[in-house]
């Protein structure tokens, strides 16, 4: 049900079988007086249907050293369905996964993003990590600002906002895909002509109960064939290396998007 006073859409992604996630979204958004609609999600896609949905099996193997899991492909298609709805709208869209956790500040940020006070195409309310670039920051209010990602990977699509123009760009790029949805949007793999920002500080979180119910990461780990050596970030030289890297990232002119 649409709320005429709400200047943005809310598109929620949760499978019909994810009853608890749907209930979590409904209770959370109702308490905030935020009106949403459920995106028609894709179930896990079997191997013999990969080509027809646009999954490039060969490129995924070449780049990642593995196939995407059936669940990862279904997740990507669900986000792509949300982008299609967002592209067809005349106002911004907040896209939520079933483990997103919003509060009154989240709602305020969405309203500020929708009132034209800032220029953006994709704004991430939640992300795994953001080193804010000193370049191109835009103040929303005394607490929140838009900042470019100085780091090359952000991950996590639990809560992000798209303009119709931004959604159309993602939709065009995603006709053929070979990455998980979070890698595609914010993993630093693909150059996109997309004006992308982080909300700093984060304007959304993860529901610990619902985020623990996801099996996507388990599927991803089972499909991995490449093993990466873990570095000890507690060593003095490693800490110095990370400090200097982050310092350089903050002051280097950032890419338009990850």
Q: Can you offer a commentary on this structure?
A:
The chain is of the alpha/beta class and 258 residues long. Helix content is 38%, strand content 13%. It contains 10 helices and 10 strands. The protein has helices at 19-31, 50-53, 57-64, 70-88, 104-114, 164-173, 181-186, 208-211, 216-223, 236-251; strands at residues 9-13, 37-38, 93-97, 100-101, 122-124, 138-139, 145-147, 159-162, 196-200, 205-206. The strands form 2 sheets. An 8-stranded mixed beta sheet has the order 2-1-3-8-5-9-7-6, with helices on both faces. Strands 4-10 form a two-stranded antiparallel sheet. Helix 4 (70-88) packs across helix 6 (164-173). The longest helix has 19 residues, at 70-88. The radius of gyration is 18 Å and the shape is globular. The mean pLDDT is 90.
SSE diagram, text form:
Elements: E1 9-13, H1 19-31, E2 37-38, H2 50-53, H3 57-64, H4 70-88, E3 93-97, E4 100-101, H5 104-114, E5 122-124, E6 138-139, E7 145-147, E8 159-162, H6 164-173, H7 181-186, E9 196-200, E10 205-206, H8 208-211, H9 216-223, H10 236-251
Helix pairs in contact: 4-6
Strand adjacency order, main sheet:
2-1-3-8-5-9-7-6
Residue stretches low in confidence (pLDDT < 50, at least 5 long) are none
- What gyration radius follows from the Cα positions, in whole Å? 18 Å
Q: What portion of the residues fall into strands of 2 or more residues?
A: 5-15%
In brief, what are we looking at here?
This protein has 258 residues and is of the alpha/beta class.
Defining traits:
eight-stranded mixed β-sheet; 10 helices; globular; 38% helix; alpha/beta; two-stranded antiparallel ribbon; 258 residues
């Amino acid at each position: 049900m649409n709320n005429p006073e709400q200047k943005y859409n809310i598109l929620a992604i949760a499978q019909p079988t994810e009853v608890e996630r749907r209930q979590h979204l409904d209770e959370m958004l109702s308490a905030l007086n935020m009106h949403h609609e459920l995106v028609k999600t894709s179930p896990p896609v079997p191997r013999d249907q990969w080509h027809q949905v646009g999954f490039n099996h060969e490129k995924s193997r070449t780049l990642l050293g593995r196939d995407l899991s059936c669940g990862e492909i279904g997740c990507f298609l669900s986000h792509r369905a949300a982008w299609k709805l967002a592209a067809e709208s005349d106002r911004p869209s907040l896209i939520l996964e079933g483990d997103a956790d919003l509060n009154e500040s989240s709602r305020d940020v969405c309203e500020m993003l929708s009132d034209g006070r800032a220029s953006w195409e994709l704004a991430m309310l939640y992300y795994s990590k953001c080193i804010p670039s000193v370049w191109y920051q835009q103040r929303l209010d005394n607490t929140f600002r838009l900042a470019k990602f100085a780091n090359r990977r952000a991950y996590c699509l639990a809560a992000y906002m798209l303009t119709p123009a931004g959604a159309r760009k993602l939709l065009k790029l995603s006709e053929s895909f070979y990455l998980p949805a979070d890698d595609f949007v914010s993993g630093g793999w693909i150059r996109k002509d997309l004006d992308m920002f982080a909300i700093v500080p984060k304007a959304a979180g993860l529901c610990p109960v619902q985020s623990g119910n996801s099996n996507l990461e388990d599927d991803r780990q089972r499909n991995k064939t490449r093993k990466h050596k873990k570095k000890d970030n507690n060593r003095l030289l490693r800490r110095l290396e990370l400090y200097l890297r982050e310092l350089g990232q903050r002051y280097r002119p950032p890419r338009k998007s990850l």
